[in-house]
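User: Modeling request: complex.
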Amino acid sequence: MDTFIQLTLTGLTNGAILALAALGFVLIYKASDVINFAQGEFLLIGAYLMYASIVQIGLPWTLGVLVTMVIAVLLGILIERLVLRPLIGEPIISVIMATIGLSSLLQAIVRMIWGSQPKSFPSFIPSDPVNILGATVGADRLWAIGIAAALMLFFSLFFRFSKEGIAMRAVADDQQAAMSMGISVKKVFAWAWSIAAVTAAIAGAIVANIVGVGPHLSHFGLRVFPVVILGGLDSIPGAIVGGVIIGLLEAYVGGYISGSLNQVISFVVLVLILMIRPYGLFGREIIERV
Amino acid sequence: MISGTFHTSYRSDMALRRTWIERLRLGLFIAFIVLFPFVVRKPYPIFLMNQIGIATIGAIGLNILVGYTGQISLGQGAFMAVGAYTAGILTARMGVPWWLTIPIAALVTAAVGALFGIPSLRMKGLYLAIATLAAQEIILWVVTHWDAVTGGVDALVVPPPMLFGQPVNTDFRFYWVIWPLVGLTALLTANLFRTHYGRAFIAIRDQDIAAEVMGINVFAYKLLAFGVSSFFVGLAGALIAHYRSIVTWERFTIETSVLYLAMIIIGGLGSISGSLFGAAFMTLLPAFLTNVGRALQGVIPGMDELIPYLQQASFGLVIILFLILEPEGLRKIWQDIKNYFALWPFSY
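Assistant: Request completed. Predicted assembly structure:
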């Protein structure tokens, strides 16, 4: 029973982080039909920005979070403006390759600045062991779940009630109709990219707090795919549910069956989902006409 | 004064090379390939040429699937791994003659490729790209964990290929294995797209529903495209196994899949010459950067540590710049040059 609770909590933490990374991914896809292969690098950059502002410059962590978020927003806007906007209307493969190229470029820049050795991260979230129902977990993992849940709630409210959130949903639904209502589609794309960069940066900071900073963090970019396919590429609740399910699945498989199988199990699930229900649990089924 | 190419017989209309200038260019290219190792007698340039040759075969294979049939694949690296490991295991463990393992490896890869093409029945575009990404991860996981067959994460050592009692895997000798196969691959592919199979592939790329309405069995042809494409990809993998005499999983990761996609995007989608241009460009760029970095070693201290990062950054940057500035790739630039000189000096 202890192992079960332990695994559940580990799975929930990973799931929360995956869900945060997936949220940005889904937002970009929803707004602009772009699959962002550089999502993992956004996470990486977020972690390193936190590292730079807290460790290298010595800012208090509140200010560090703020600086990280501001730079992430600027990065998101810059990338949308310079790379993605010229490619509007190009075939899917061009857009996929552009974000893959972007991920390579961003990762190289991060390695040029900070090197490729993993670095330890001063935990700004307390990590004392906590006893829950007989299982011991680090408090930082509980905080991670809490922060992710709060952010998810915040963004759900944002899409439900704020003007910008409603504009983003309108663009996702029908770009032309949104334009004729006076919504600036370009602005919405910029919003989508900057929110994606920010949520990924926060996810990166949380991961860094638990396992340290290093180039390996960009692996989250690939691990996001099973999550978004399971939840549905264009569904925000899908990103949350998918993240939690994949996180738990990886934890249980890793804990009960085999330590190495958990790297691939989510991709097996991904293929099965694609075969049975390609639009995912909550995604919208698209009917294509010639 | 040429105002256009006009054919007076079906024979000339159906020819692969229709004008004397096209035939002359092809002749010059073949002469270049044949004379290259004799004129340049250093091993490094020949090694680079061999790399380009293998990459060209792989790129043509991927182009059949992505450029001609429109099915985006991120599984190239894993399919190459299947080819390389099949050839390696057959030679090292079962003692099959090396020249026989190359076609067997290509056929095995074709079967595996067709198997992983099954998801294309239900999905396309983005979803298919993600499904092939999963294929990449799953195949590579099997390769690194199936210790009994592949040796797991350890390198698989392949005995050097022998011919008339001499090892063939020196740069100069293996050149004569690789480049005839490049020629054969290019010729087969060029002819493939003059048959009804190839036409069906192109119809599926342009509009799959319309192709189905016209009576093309879309699923069967998509599987065939996966199979044919993987055949050449497996061929490239088998050549890597015999040329390098060592097979390691690191050479077939998702980065390899991305590298090959970059080759055909930068070279030109749906083009054989584009595959060659892209393969050459993506092989020579890192080599060029390494040499420039070494030359600058004395000027900028710590340059040698920056080289891998510079390669990675320029890789990403080149992809983005090509997509934005010349989405049709090097092939289009070459076409523009030819067009300019077609009416030179009176071009308008």
